[in-house]
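Support request from a user on the community tier.

User writes: "When I paste my C-alpha cells into the form, the page sometimes reloads and wipes my input. The last time it worked, I copied everything first. Here is what I submitted, just in case something in the input itself triggers the reload:"
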C-alpha cells in the first residue's frame, strides 16, 4: 500500500508512532542489556572489565555515529537512511546472537551501536520534518516522550522474561522481527525528505571525536582495575586529549563540516547540549548502572531486578508531562535547572540510604527529575537550532545524550564497591552522580543566564 493511499492524519499519526518506536529500540536495548550483561559475563566467564565493555562498546558506536548519521539523513534522505539503518541493526543483532565468545560479541555490540545511531538520528529527523508547526510538534514530542517512558517501564520486566525463557542470545534475536516490522511500516507511511543544500559531514572531525571517545572510555575502564598511574591509562588519556584538541582546532578552522562550527559559539546551544549530557550522565545512566549493581551486589535475578527498577522507571513515565507543564510556566531553562537539582537531591538521598528500604524512594526522586527533564532537553536543543536542520539537531541531541551515558556509565560503574554489604556498595557511584549534577547545573546557569521565558 502506498503512502498516498492512507488518509493524511492517520498517516501522520502512524508515522509518528512507528518513528517513536524506532527511537524506543535504543532504550529497549540499553535497559535489557543492563539486565543481560551480568548473565552474559557469567556464561562467557569474563570479569567486571568485560562486563563494562559489553555495554560501553554499544554506547561508543552509538555516540560516534550520531552526528554523521544526522547529517547524512538530511543529505541523502531521512526515510532511506532509516530503512537501511533498521536493516543494519537486524544484521548486527544476528551477529551478536551468534557470537561464540566475548571478543566477537563486543565488536558486534559496537556495530549494533553504529546501526542504532543511524536509526535514532533519522527517526528523530523524520518526526521533526513531518511536524514543523509549533503546536503539532509539541503534541508529537509529547507522544514520543510517552512511548519512550513506557519503554523504560516495560523494558526491565520484558528483559527479565526474555532472559528467563530464552537466555541471553534471545535478547539480541528479538531485534530482528522488530526491525522487520518497523521497516515495513516506515516504507509504507513515510515520504522521502532531504536537504540537498547540506554540506557533507567532516570526516576528520568525526574521526577525531571517535578517537577521543574511545580513548576516554578505555582510560576510565582500565583505570578502575589498573589504577590511574598505569602506563596504558596514561597513554589512553594523552591520545584522547590530543584527539579532542585536534577536534577543537578543526572546528575553529572551518565554518561547515559536521555542521557545529557556527553553533558551538552560541551560548544557548552550548547550554542545551550541556543539559542533555548532564541528564544522561547522572540520571539516564541509572537504567544501565542500577541493574548491574542489583545483580552484582545483591544477587537479584533478572525478574527481581525488573520489579525493583519500577520506582525509577515509573517516575520516568509519569513526570515528562509534569515537566512540560511546569516548563510552560517557568521557561525551559529554569525547568532544566530544576530537573538537575531534583536529580542531585535524589542521588544524594540514594547515597545516604543505600542498603536500606528507603533507597527505592530515592530512586523515585531520581526518576522524577529525569522524567521532567527528558522531553525538555530535546526541546531545548531543537529550539536553539536553525530551521531546516532537523537531522543535525537530532544528531547533536542524541550524541550529547549517549556520550553522557557512555562516560557516565564507565566512570560511575568504576566507583561501585563489590566487596560492600548489599546495595551499600553503590553509594559512592550515587555520590559521584550528585556531584556531577550540581556541577552541570552551575555550568548551565553561567552559560545561559536564564531569565526570559523559553
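"...and here is what came back when it finally went through:"
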Amino acid at each position: 500500500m502506498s503512502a498516498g493511499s492512507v488518509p493524511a492524519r492517520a498517516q501522520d499519526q502512524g508515522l509518528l508512532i512507528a518513528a517513536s518506536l524506532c527511537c524506543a529500540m535504543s532504550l529497549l536495548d540499553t535497559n535489557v542489556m543492563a539486565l543481560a550483561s551480568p548473565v552474559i559475563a557469567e556464561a562467557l566467564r569474563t570479569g567486571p572489565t568485560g562486563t563494562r565493555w559489553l555495554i560501553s562498546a554499544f554506547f561508543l558506536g552509538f555516540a560516534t555515529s550520531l552526528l554523521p548519521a544526522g547529517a547524512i539523513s538530511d543529505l541523502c534522505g531521512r526515510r532511506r537512511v532509516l530503512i537501511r539503518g533498521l536493516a543494519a541493526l537486524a544484521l548486527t543483532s544476528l551477529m551478536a546472537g551468534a557470537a561464540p565468545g566475548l571478543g566477537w560479541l563486543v565488536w558486534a555490540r559496537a556495530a549494533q551501536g553504529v546501526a542504532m545511531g543511524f536509526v535514532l538520528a533519522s527517526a528523530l529527523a523524520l518526526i521533526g520534518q513531518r511536524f514543523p508547526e509549533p503546536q503539532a510538534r509539541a503534541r508529537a514530542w509529547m507522544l514520543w516522550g510517552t512511548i519512550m517512558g513506557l519503554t523504560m517501564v516495560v523494558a526491565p520486566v520484558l528483559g527479565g522474561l526474555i532472559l528467563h525463557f530464552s537466555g541471553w542470545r534471545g535478547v539480541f534475536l528479538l531485534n530482528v522481527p522488530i526491525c522487520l516490522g518497523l521497516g515495513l511500516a516506515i516504507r509504507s507511511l513515510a515520504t522521502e525528505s532531504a536537504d540537498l543544500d547540506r554540506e557533507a559531514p567532516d570526516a576528520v572531525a568525526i574521526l577525531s571525536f571517535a578517537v577521543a571517545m574511545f580513548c576516554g572510555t578505555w582510560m576510565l575502564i582500565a583505570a578502575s582495575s589498573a589504577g590511574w598511574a598505569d602506563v596504558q591509562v596514561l597513554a589512553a588519556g594523552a591520545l584522547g586529549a590530543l584527539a579532542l584538541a585536534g577536534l577543537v582546532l578543526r572546528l575553529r578552522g572551518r565554518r561547515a563540516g559536521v555542521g557545529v562550527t557556527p553553533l558551538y559559539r552560541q551560548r544557548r546551544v552550548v547550554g542545551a547540549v550541556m543539559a542533555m549530557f548532564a541528564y544522561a550522565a547522572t540520571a539516564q545512566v541509572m537504567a544501565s548502572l542500577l541493574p548491574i549493581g542489583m545483580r552484582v551486589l545483591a544477587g537479584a535475578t533478572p525478574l527481581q531486578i525488573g520489579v525493583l527498577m519500577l520506582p525509577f522507571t515509573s517516575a520516568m513515565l509519569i513526570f515528562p508531562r509534569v515537566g512540560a507543564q511546569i516548563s510552560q510556566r517557568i521557561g525551559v531553562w529554569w525547568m532544566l535547572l530544576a530537573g538537575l537539582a531534583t536529580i542531585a537531591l535524589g542521588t544524594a538521598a540514594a547515597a545516604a540510604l543505600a542498603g536500606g528500604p528507603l533507597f527505592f524512594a530515592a530512586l523515585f526522586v531520581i526518576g522524577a527529575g529525569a522524567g521532567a527533564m527528558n522531553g525538555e532537553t530535546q526541546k531545548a536543543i531543537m529550539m536553539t537550532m536553525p530551521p531546516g536542520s532537523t537531522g543535525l539537531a537530532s544528531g547533536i541531541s542524541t550524541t550529547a545524550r549517549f556520550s553522557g551515558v557512555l562516560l557516565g556509565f564507565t566512570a560511575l560503574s568504576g566507583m561501585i564497591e563489590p566487596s560492600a554489604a548489599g546495595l551499600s556498595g553503590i553509594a559512592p557511584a550515587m555520590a559521584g552522580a550528585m556531584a556531577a549534577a550540581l556541577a552541570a547545573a552551575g555550568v548551565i546557569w553561567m552559560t545561559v543566564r536564564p531569565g526570559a521565558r523559553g
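Agent notes: The reload is a front-end session timeout and is unrelated to the input. The chain has 17 helices and no strands. Residues 351 and 430 are 5 Å apart (CA to CA). Escalated to web team.
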